Sequence to fold (398 residues):
Amino acid sequence: MRIGIIAHDLTQAAVRGWSRYAAGLVRALAATGSAEVVLFARRPLAPIYDDLPGRRCIWPGRREVVWEQWELPRRAAARGVDVLHAPSNRGLCAFAPCPTVVTRHDAIERMFAPDFPGSLRSRLRLYYADAVAMRRASAIATVSETSKRDIVKTWSLDGARVVVAGEGIDDRFFMGATRAERERVRGYYGLEGPYLLYLGGMDRRKDVVTLVDAYAAWGRRDIPCLIAGSTRGESQPVNERVARYGLASCVRVLGEIAEDDVRGLYAGAAAFAYPSRYEGFGLQAVEAMAMGVPAVVSDGGALPEVVGDAALVFRAGDASALANCLDRLFADEQLRYRLIERGWRRASRFRWEHVIARYLSLYRNLGAQPAPQAAKIVERAPSRVRTAAIAPTNVLPR
Fold:
């Protein structure tokens, strides 16, 4: 079976949750030996993905919407793709030459719309891409039961079209960090001793200010707090809160972290805190558990579903509850050991070698279906009709 993967997220050097998912999916598919992977993109893949398996189909030029709706289906047909998969919420063509899958990780952009400002043009583009993905995909894959529930509700979908296929964790997180990784990270960031770690974005939904409030209330200044990840979101409130409490010497905002440093950063942490108000899965929390780091997470979204009894859970937005969890974790060694053991076992359920079977089953079921009739009609239509068929105004929700 030949699977086409729309690899937009793999063209950027910055590694984020969606790009980790896409790269992990490609590697896991190739490792099964049951599928041939073709990667479609408008730009060359970033150098960090040079070793990624799969044939490249790079076709530069044209605006993104034109590439998706005109170039992509033609290239997929020419390469005999059996199933076309968009792994990052959107990016599908409206009329494909084969069955299609979109992975919708969550409904965050709709549920927290004020946190995603943008121009009218960018919002229209987003709504158009969502409309194509949600209405035209043969199947919608997602990563948790919580995400499925919210996706079905948000887009008024038939629940049978949404499949909880899951999220995978790379095996390298279960192997631990090498001594060289640990020493390099400690030297580069000037770290001494254990620390409390947060790794993720800085937008309001991530609620990093609650972590700073909790750290201030906790009072353990011998355990520094490291806030790592993209600062493209609203980092100013976090910096202001740190200054207000006079915590500049023990709360450090590290900014974007190189992928090669991630394991070393996890490995040196005494605990991992994830205060997000909502997550469709919570990849970093599971990575931390796989690395043997006890986790404290909020009850936002799918986090309780994903961590089970393998982490301490507090009410989202409740800084005092988070501080109490930190107190318990650092005061009770037996609790720490239990969470480390449970966390590793829980994280093991999300190894790609286990998760990929559900994606293969989905692909095989879709691959047995006939090619969409709409794709055949558009292929034969005059160019002006094809252009009208993909015009954004035709599919925008009223």
